[in-house]
From TrEMBL:
Membrane topology: Multi-pass membrane protein
InterPro entries with a match to the protein in the record: GPCR_Rhodpsn, GPCR_Rhodpsn_7TM
Ranges of residues in domain G-protein coupled receptors family 1 profile: 47-265
Species of origin: Coilia grayii (Gray's grenadier anchovy)
UniProt GO molecular function: G protein-coupled receptor activity
Protein localization: Membrane
Name assigned to this protein: G-protein coupled receptors family 1 profile domain-containing protein
Lineage of source species: Eukaryota, Metazoa, Chordata, Craniata, Vertebrata
Parts of the chain that traverse the membrane: 31-56, 142-161, 173-194, 215-240
Alphabetically ordered keywords of this record: G-protein coupled receptor, Glycoprotein, Membrane, Receptor, Transducer, Transmembrane, Transmembrane helix
GO CC terms of this entry: membrane
Pfam families on file: 7tm_1 (PF00001)
Superkingdom of source: Eukaryota
Length: 265
């Protein structure tokens, strides 16, 4: 009995020693993560502040089309404000309280941002493909209700996702799959609608349409690059038992995918 007990303690001790969220034995990953985080913080913070200022000014004159962006920008701002402390803790401090706060704040980028991006794409699709229905639904109450639902979902995943990590990964994988499908469908539908000839039968693309097409193509490419890897990683982590190092690498892949997605807006 003593031998079995001591062997169990040894196994648990080895597992605890093997697990290191800061991955000191695999320095290439943390180095890449730190560089990406620093660059995104330096660029993202002033960009988020400037964008929020512009959106607030627009809301003062009664525009309702930017409601989703008004909700998305504070998420980006919160994330970018906390980024320097998160990087410092990851690289130097290794404080558990700061780590938990960092994981909570990162949820705004990992969970809330993709949901609001999907809402923006659906709104644009309705405006281009179904303009009459879009005009009839121009009341902002519906958009505010959707934003409230997104905030509630994001906060729930941020608060309780760490307690049931495997369930959280499964839910996050399904959400990513749904989001990628919605954004891809909306972008392709908008792309096809903008390429249609005008009522006079002219096939020449107006310069404004050409710019809109370029924006849609960029959005579609960035969506596939940013979120498709996250879908594959989340699904794979639920189907195949991953080791601690593989779980850390998969988590870094999800974070890097979100960093790349910053340029899709």
């Amino acid at each position: 009995m003593e031998t079995n007990g001591s062997s169990n303690i040894t196994v648990l001790t080895n597992q605890t020693e093997d697990f290191d969220i800061y991955c000191r034995r695999f320095m290439a990953g943390p180095l890449v993560w730190t560089v990406f985080s620093t660059l995104c913080g330096c660029v993202g913070l002033p960009a988020s502040v400037g964008l929020l200022w512009v959106l607030v000014q627009r809301q003062r004159i009664g525009l309702t089309s930017d409601i989703y962006m008004v909700n998305l920008t504070p998420m980006e701002l919160i994330y970018n404000i906390f980024r320097p402390l998160s990087v410092l803790n990851f690289s130097v401090l290794h404080d558990e309280v700061v780590k938990e706060i960092s994981l909570f704040v990162e949820g705004f980028q990992l969970n809330g941002r993709p949901l609001l991006m999907a809402c923006i794409c659906v709104d644009c699709h309705m405006a281009v493909a179904h303009p009459i229905t879009y005009l009839n639904m121009k009341n902002s109450r519906c958009r505010l209700a959707v934003c409230a639902l997104v905030w509630a979902t994001t906060l729930t995943l941020n608060l309780f996702g760490r307690e049931r990590q495997h369930l959280h990964l499964a839910i996050r994988g399904l959400l990513r799959l749904l989001i990628v499908s919605v954004i891809t469908y909306c972008d392709v539908a908008i792309l096809l609608a903008l390429r249609k000839p005008d009522p006079a039968g002219k096939t020449d693309i107006h310069p404004q349409k050409r710019r809109a097409l370029q924006v849609i193509i960029n959005s579609l490419v960035m969506t596939v690059v940013s979120y498709l890897p996250q879908v594959l990683v989340s699904i794979a982590s639920t189907l195949v038992p991953l080791g601690q190092q593989a779980m850390w690498v998969s988590d870094m892949a999800v974070k890097l995918g979100s960093f790349l997605g910053f340029g899709s807006l």
